Automatic annotation (TrEMBL):
This is Tryptophan-rich sensory protein. It is a multi-pass membrane protein. The keyword Protein biosynthesis does not apply. InterPro entries: TspO/MBR-related_sf, TspO_MBR.
Length: 166
């Protein structure tokens, strides 16, 4: 009895390079706001932080991991021919726009309440993106779940920073 392996969905060398390109692109876009604004300011250092505020090193490590997962998820959806692909890609772009907008709103504008509004919209867009990705590729959906968890945590953290310093 011969067993056949379905190689149609296996990535080849070229598609692995394309996936790496998506990962790199999402990481670059995600890191873009740090060029213009940073938590390393007297204003931010002076803010009262909640007890659950993570160590500073956690942020670049977590965001790099999350943007890597997002890049792979985006690649999976991009290469799919499933119905709903365009909507999923559009929602992904919209949530990335709000993701990128949060950092300058919080750090450059020093506006935690504005940033809270942005992150709440971001949270809704991430949920929408998860549902849209689910129609296209369930693996891509699973890759977005840690992102939703982190954005939820970040929203709570943003709220607490605003509340403690209002």
């Amino acid at each position: 009895m011969e067993t056949r392996t379905n190689t149609a969905n296996r990535p080849d060398g070229r598609s692995i390079l394309t996936a790496a390109g998506f990962v790199l692109l999402v990481n670059l876009v995600g890191a873009l706001p740090s060029v213009f604004s940073s938590p390393d300011t007297p204003w931010f250092r002076a803010l009262e932080k909640p007890s659950f505020y993570p160590p500073t090193i956690a942020f670049p490590v977590v965001w790099t991991l999350l943007f890597t997962l997002l890049g792979v998820a985006l690649w999976l959806v991009w290469r799919s021919e499933a119905d709903g692909r365009r909507l999923a890609l559009g929602l992904f772009a919209a949530q990335m726009l709000f993701n990128v907008a949060w950092t300058p709103a919080f750090f450059a504008l020093e506006a935690p309440l504005v940033a809270l509004g942005i992150i709440l919209v971001l949270w809704g867009l991430v949920v929408g993106t998860i549902f849209a990705f689910r129609r296209v590729d369930r693996r891509a959906t699973a890759l977005l779940v840690p992102y939703l968890v982190w954005v939820t945590f970040a929203a709570v953290l943003n709220f607490e920073l605003w509340r403690l310093n209002a």
